[in-house]
Specification:
The chain is built from ten helices and eleven strands. With about 300 residues, it is α+β, with helices and mostly antiparallel strands. Strand 8 and strand 9 form a beta hairpin. Helix 2 packs across helix 3. It binds adenosine-5'-diphosphate (ADP) and ligand LJ64HWYM.
């Protein structure tokens, strides 16, 4: 039977004030999905995984979009998906999104559907909807396209890679915690439905500064822009370690720090001016004060989804 392998990388979404719009792919972790055509008689998705994610396709971020693909293209095919999880889930690393993108990309190649990258994002958000109750496109856009992306339109989906003219590297501060089921769904329920105009203006300044800083290669602008006055603050009970960790990162001259997606992972942008050792040492104490250990993983901005026909 013909089968295809696709690999999609982890991501950090929001990036300060870019809630549901900005996201960054990174090489830290990846999910791989093997898609196999079993028969052309019955419309069905069969699931396997090396991890404890749900194997009901409707509740798996990889299975749900593939079911939607088969329906959209009116294909009575049975597809087997084997989801090899490499992105730790429930930690703000775009784990659900990586699986969704890898699955859609693999089935696209397997069935010669000729989907564009934006089509892949359009279907992959169905996976995010299945696990978080909301089709947020940011994580899947970064895992599909690579780099740092802005989702400039939701319907139709339009994704733009942001030119990066600043040299920096990434450190992920990942708490060794189990956030249980549906972490992002719970986090999204904390976000206010209405905000004051002053907060909108403040976040618009942050978003403008962050994006312009990347494009102009202006370190100070990026530092000024990597902030958020609305979503991060509304969710602080889910990551009480974050404010102090951010303060330490900035004290030791990190370019900036933000919550990775809905957390609890914290993303730190750094360069040669940053005293990374001090951040790790003092950041580790902050994590311990909150009752858990953290892993400090350095990584780089990632690529888009990779597809490999196996036979
Ligand atoms: N293929 C999958 N990969 C990761 N999580 C999945 C997958 N399918 C379903 N889930 C569920 O989605 C939740 C994790 O996704 P989410 O809450 O968005 O956090 P994150 O994206 O930070 O990992 C968990 O409850 C997990 O069981
Ligand atoms: N914009 C979303 C991003 C969720 O990212 P995740 O990696 O935590 O799933 C949100 O903030 O809800």
């Amino acid at each position: 039977m013909r089968s295809v392998k696709a690999t999609a990388f982890s991501s950090s979404a929001n990036l300060g004030a870019g809630y549901d719009v900005l996201s960054m792919s990174h090489l830290a972790f990846s999910d791989t999905v093997y898609a196999e055509l079993i028969n052309e008689k019955e419309r069905r998705v069969m699931m396997e995984s090396n991890s404890n994610v749900p194997l009901d396709p409707a509740r798996n971020s990889a299975g749900a979009p593939v079911e939607a693909l088969l329906k959209e293209f009116q294909l009575n095919y049975t597809i087997k998906l084997n989801v090899i999880k490499g992105v730790p889930h429930g930690l703000g690393l775009g784990s659900s999104g990586a699986s969704a993108v890898a699955a859609v990309a693999a089935v696209n190649e397997l069935l010669n559907l000729h989907l564009t990258l934006e089509d892949i994002v359009k279907f992959a958000v169905i996976g995010e909807q299945a696990v978080s109750g909301s089709p947020h496109p940011d994580n899947v856009a970064a895992s599909a396209f690579g780099g740092i992306v802005a989702v400039t339109s939701h319907d139709p989906i339009r994704v733009v890679r942001i030119p990066i003219n600043l040299n920096f590297r990434l450190m992920l501060v990942i708490p060794r915690v189990n956030t249980g089921e549906g972490k992002t769904k719970k986090a999204r329920e904390l976000v206010p439905k209405q905000i004051e105009v002053s907060k909108m203006v403040e976040n618009t300044r942050f978003l403008s500064s962050f994006i312009l800083g990347l494009v102009k290669g202006d370190r100070a602008l990026v530092r000024e822009g990597l902030n958020d006055a609305v979503v991060e603050r509304s969710r602080e009970p889910m990551y009480p370690h974050y404010p102090k960790l951010k303060e330490i990162a900035l004290r030791y001259d990190a370019i900036g720090a933000c919550v990775s997606g809905a957390g609890p992972t914290v993303l730190i942008l750094y360069d040669d001016s940053t005293k990374l050792g001090e951040i790790k040492q003092e950041g580790g104490k902050v994590c311990a004060q909150h009752g858990f250990q953290c892993d400090f993983i350095t990584t780089e901005i990632g690529e888009g989804v990779r597809v490999e026909g196996l036979n």
